[in-house]
Amino acid sequence: MDRPLWTDRTYGSMVRAALWLESEVGEGNIFSKKQLRDAFPEVAQIDRRVRDLRDRGWRIDTSREDPSLRQEEQRYARKGEDVWLRNRGKSAATGSLTASQRTKIMAADNHLCRSCGMAAGDFYDGGVMSAQLDVARRRITLADGSTEIQLITECNRCRVGGRGKDADPAKVLDALDFLAPLERQIFAGWVKADNRKLNGIEKLWGLYRALPEESRTTVKRAVAPYDQAAGK
Asked: What does the alpha-carbon distance between residue 158 and residue 165 come to, in Å, rounded to a whole number?
């Protein structure tokens, strides 16, 4: 079977990046980040799509692995699996769910709405309507650029408001790369606990934001000396 063209946009961006490495770079050769981005100007996260190939056995060296490379260079060292032969996306989660399937999904989501954090029976603001939980379908963008439907627990209000909403876990991973080490450690703790507790200064900020404009001005005057001291 002939290898597809890397310009074929019916394939996901990770698959196209693999095809580009094979046809335009060649195993053992060097390419630059600029060459990669120029080849895929329409793909904002093409660097990450290339990194995703490493999970499929592809070896892409940077200056960390190969000191002879410059900072902006990478070497296509070894081909991995033929990702273009894989299914382009997993089957969507469609059809009716059984009661046990619905219970399992909700248990995995800690019986909370993953969009707003409401539990079943909690009252929304105003105390008129209470939250009811159900399983919603969310379109997810996978590493290879294809999409699949995954299941998530949402309350009745968020489920209606979130129809048509897509999610891309790669955006979370990309943002994680820009965090300082301490921030990554804090985020990892939130992920492990599946809960984020506000610290003192965040709670204080929430209290300040809830003040009327006149009262906010009073607080601004009070904190102005601290801001001036920090600027020295």
From this structure: 11
Of 139, 44, 45, the closest CA to residue 90 belongs to 139
pLDDT exceeds cutoff 60 at 91: no
Q: What would the two tokens of residue 159 be?
A: 């489920």
β-pair type (133-141, 73-78): unpaired
Quick one: which H or E segment has residue 137? Answer: strand 133-141
Tokens 């009811």 sit at which residue? Answer: 132
Question: What CA–CA distance (Å, rounded) separates 103 from 109?
Answer: 10
Rounded CA separation 94/101 (Å): 13
What value does the mean pLDDT take over residues 107-135? 84
Tell me the pLDDT band of 33, cut-offs 50, 70 and 90: very high
